[in-house]
Design goal:
By secondary structure, this protein is of the alpha/beta class. It has helices at residues 15-26, 37-57, 70-85, 100-111, 129-135, 158-168, 189-192, 241-254, 258-276, 305-314, 334-338, 343-346, 360-382, and strands at 3-4, 64-67, 91-95, 115-119, 140-146, 173-177, 196-200, 211-215, 282-284, 295-300, 317-318, 349-353. It is globular and about 65 Å long.
Amino acid sequence: MEVYFDNSATTRVYDEAIDIMVKTMKEDYGNPSSLHLKGLDAEHIVKDAADKICKKLRCIPEEIIFTSGGTESNNMAIVGTALAKKRTGKHIVVSSVEHASVSAVMQFLIREGFEVSYVPANEKGIASPEAFAEAVREDTILVSCMHINNEIGSVMPVAEISRAIKAKNPNVYFHVDAIQSFGKIETIPKQMGCDLMSVSGHKIHGPKGSGFLYVKKGILIRPIIYGGGQQKNMRSGTENVPAIAGLGVAVEKTFDHFDEKISHITSLRNRLIEGLTTIDEVYTNTDKDTFAPHIASISFVGVRAEVMLHSLEDKGIYVSSGSACSSNKAKESAVLTAIGLDKKRLESTLRFSFGEDNTEEEVDYAISTIKELLPVLRHYVRG
């Protein structure tokens, strides 16, 4: 049996998204900036995808900028704000548990003369609105916060954070990294109080290399890519029309029967957590009641994460040791460190992340396989 429990890293592309991408590459292959019919057909595809996204976000097409994915969207939001507002101030506030595509940008901006304040998270990986507000100053230009933590699944109270920081400084921009939350929980920018929101296509069964940045009307950021002035001068370069077409279909299909899908995914996550935490020295870092529906962070004390990961791989079960963007690097997770895990749990934590195609049979197979593997692996390590 092959079991894919790494949907937070990437998802299988919907067949319907593949079909429209192939059609676009074969038939509607014009440049959307061209004035002839082929160009107009391509432009229509881009506009259609934007309309599908706007319907889910309850926003207008002018507020959507297509990107190559979450990393670019985060970079565009943060660096774009820094460039646009640096005369107003050079202070940025961010949580201590951000994805590398945010935390690495902060390090870059620090080298460029900006000051960054990090808001600590509690043992659940959540930073409070009050802590964010306390960190905001008169010269603060941006607050950036992930919505769902990609490693453990904690959900930040973004609407409350927005209200708190804007009460302290109404001029501050609020950026939300919704890469793990879009398509999993409600993400309506106006309800969340965010000015900028990043989304990645390959987390929702769209193609890799696709994504978008929501930029609230009236919010001014500077572009970080220059050239022919495509997308309202905000992201130059010919649009990746096939990927945008696939993204539009993926967004639409993701929200079909949404409540049923999320209920199914949640039940699978809970089934896994309940089945594994009956085992001695196996712990969950994911709160079933308040965390995201699709992520389970599990620590298998006594076995290094990489050993367990590859042992499961041998049995056809695919998981990850934290964020896929950093799981190939031999260093401790900044998120797990920030929430205070001891060294034994830090070294033994795996992430299981679920999608709509996963089944109870797959969960039960994973539980029984782990129950067989753990005693053997622990004996080998301790022996």
